[in-house]
Amino acid sequence: MKKKRILVTGGSGFFGYELAKLLSKKNRVTVIDNNLRGNFKKFEKLRNIELMDCDIRNMEKLNKLKKFDDVYHLAFINGTENFYNHPKAVLEVGIKGILNIIEFVKKKKVKNFIMFSSSEVYGSPNIIPTSEKEIIKIEDIFNPRFSYSAGKIISESVTINYLRGTGIKYKIIRPHNIFGENMGLKHVIPQVMYKIFKASEKFKLKKVKIKIQGNGNETRAFCYINDAVKQTIFISEKIKENGIFNVGFSKETKIKELIKKIEKILNMKIVVQQGKIKDGGTLRRCPSQKKVSRYKKFKNNFESGLKKTIYWYKNFYLEDNINNNELYK
Ligand SMILES: NC(=O)c1ccc[n+]([C@@H]2O[C@H](COP(=O)([O-])OP(=O)(O)OC[C@H]3O[C@@H](n4cnc5c(N)ncnc54)[C@H](O)[C@@H]3O)[C@@H](O)[C@H]2O)c1
Predict the structure, then answer these.
(1) Whole-number pLDDT of residue 93
(2) Residue 261's domain is classified under what CATH number?
(3) 17 within 8 A of 227, measured Cβ to Cβ
(4) Ligand 1 pocket: which of 17, 19, 37 to mutate (most atoms <8 Å of CB)?
(5) For 66-117, how does the pLDDT look when each residue is reduced to its tens digit (9 = 90+)?
(6) pLDDT of residue 277
């Protein structure tokens, strides 16, 4: 079978790297990224992937790219803290980015477009587990956090309306709390790990007290990166209908349960002190998997994935990599 040509935007980021790696086993993959959060160093051992430094806001540069069968569009400014601190940049990359990428997709007659949206578009959903039919919304336009979901909602609308009648197939992916090794520093697991690292004096003390956001009863439905990549490729390649698809698992974990699991993995005692939850922070989010499971049921590797991730971050902080904590990372 002839190999497909695939473009992954934002491909040096957390999800993009793992996606490009798996896609490159059967296809010819090109990754573009401006390395705001990602980096090309990760690809040192993957010589079969073509890498290009390219900002998706730069249409001239995009025009120089060749033709592709499939485009996975992941480039976006991710990381909750970034939504609060850099809302303008989040919107600019989101909006200019999707308009440019859609123009590119149409000009180059791409066959399949896979746009990465987010569970954030549900805000605080009315129904849990939340199906793809749930109302999407911006709960407080004045809160900078919602720059991210605003950018994603616009990106979904552009995808649907600009590709209507073109014959180009599209899938909109809404990932829910994907975690794994090397996911950046601005998510729950790396932040909890950093607090433990500091409080335990580099994991020397066996009993620590850490402050968390909220009371610990908030939930997330975590999904290990390898599982998320498999679900995404399945949706892209095996499902014929255009549409919107949750990616993740319907199993909710309370933050305090997550910390208990980390405690066990690290063989430590972790006492949790409640803190204030950030404005716009979500109490509960969990995807319904009904739509995708009509086609296939996926195994959930949360426990083994968590173990790998915890050990990875322990080593990462011990090796003093925290100095690389740049503005957007
Ligand atoms: N990780 C999750 O749990 C999760 C959840 C929901 C949605 N998503 C979405 O999935 C996609 C990938 O997420 P991730 O966790 O890998 O985030 P990430 O930040 O690791 O990856 C995004 C990549 O986009 C790149 N980028 C940013 N601005 C760019 C620009 N102007 N031009 C080119 N590249 C640019 C960054 O450098 C980074 O490598 C994103 O669209 C994100 O919004 C992720």
Answers:
(1) 98
(2) 3.90.25.10
(3) no
(4) 37
(5) 999 999 999 999 988 899 999 999 999 999 999 999 999 999 999 999 999 9
(6) 83
Global pTM exceeds 0.85: yes
Could you tell me which of 180, 69, 137 has the C-alpha nearest to residue 280? 137
Count: domains in the chain: 2
Q: What is the pLDDT of residue 47?
A: 83
Question: How many whole angstroms from 77 Cα to the centroid of ligand 1?
Answer: 6
Minimal CA–CA distance to 72: which of 123, 28, 9, 137?
9
| Per-residue pLDDT reduced to its tens digit, 189-236 | 999 999 999 999 999 999 999 999 889 999 999 999 999 999 999 999
Q: What's the CA-to-centroid distance between 13 and ligand 1, angstroms?
A: 6
Residue 293 domain-assigned? no
Distance 33 CA to ligand 1 centre (A): 9
Q: Does 192 lie in the same domain as 46?
A: no
In a domain, 233, yes or no: yes
* Burial category of 250 from C-beta neighbours within 10 Å (exposed 0-12, middle 13-18, buried 19 and up): middle
Of all protein residues, whose CA lies closest to atom 42 belonging to ligand 1? 78
Pair (272, 153) in one structural domain: no
Using the mean position of ligand 1's atoms as its centre, give its distance from the Cα of residue 75 in Å: 5
